[in-house]
Amino acid sequence: MDQFVPSWAALRAAVAGLSDEDFAQPSGCTGWLVRDLASHLVIDAQDVLITLVTPADGEPTVDAARYWHVSDEPPTGADPLDALTVRLAAAYEDPALLKFHLDDVGSAAGRAAQLADPALRVSTQDMVLTAGDYLAAYVLEWTLHHLDLIAHLPHVPGPPAEGLAETRALLERIAGAAFPEPFTDTDALLIATGRRTPAEAERTALGPLAAKLPLILG
Question: Beta strands of the chain (E only): which ranges?
Answer without folding.
Answer: 70-71, 121-124, 127-130, 216-217
